[in-house]
Amino acid sequence: MTDAINRCSASETAACCCVDVGTVMDNTDCLAGYNRTFASRSEAEAMLKSLTAKAHEVESDPCVIESSFTETPEGVVLDCSFTFCCQAETLIFQLGLR
C-alpha cells in the first residue's frame, strides 16, 4: 500500500500533508457560475443585484458579469457568470455565497 502523499501529484510536505498554494490556485479558473430557479422575475432580479454587489466587494479589477433570465413553467431561471481577474477573487466570491 502506498502513502497518500505518493498518489497525489501536488507538491506536499510529508509532515502535515500541506500543498503549495500555487499547486491549488494556478490562476486558470477565474469564472464563477450561478444558476437557480425563482418563483418570480423580481426575486431573480433581486438575487442578481445581491450577487453583483458581492462581486464588486471582492473585485480588484472590474468583474465581467453576464446574466440571463429564462421563463419556464417552474419559474424564472437566473443564469449568470462572474469572471474575475484572478482565481483568488473567484474563490473568495464563491466562499462568500456559502
Report on the structure:
A hairpin with a 2-residue loop joins strand 4 (64-72) and strand 5 (75-83). The N and C termini lie far apart (37 Å). The chain has a 3-stranded antiparallel beta sheet with strand order 3-5-4. The chain has a two-stranded antiparallel sheet with strand order 1-2. It is an alpha+beta fold. The radius of gyration is 18 Å and the shape is elongated. The chain is 37% helix and 31% strand. The chain has 4 helices and 5 strands.
In short:
The protein is of the alpha+beta class and 98 residues long. The chain has 4 helices and 5 strands. Strand 1 and strand 2 form a beta hairpin.
Notable traits:
98 residues, alpha+beta, three-stranded antiparallel sheet, two-stranded antiparallel ribbon, 37% helix
Average pLDDT, to the nearest integer? Answer: 83
Number of helices: 4
Strand order, main sheet: write it out. 3-5-4
Total beta strand runs? 5
**SSE-based structural type:** alpha+beta
Radius of gyration over C-alpha positions, nearest whole angstrom? 18 Å
**Could you state the order of secondary-structure elements as H and E?**
HEEHEHEEH
The amount of helix comes to 25-40%
Note the overall shape.
Answer: elongated
Low-confidence stretches: 1-12
**Largest sheet features:** 3 strands, antiparallel
Q: How far apart are the termini?
A: 37 Å
Tell me what portion of residues adopts beta-strand conformation.
25-35%
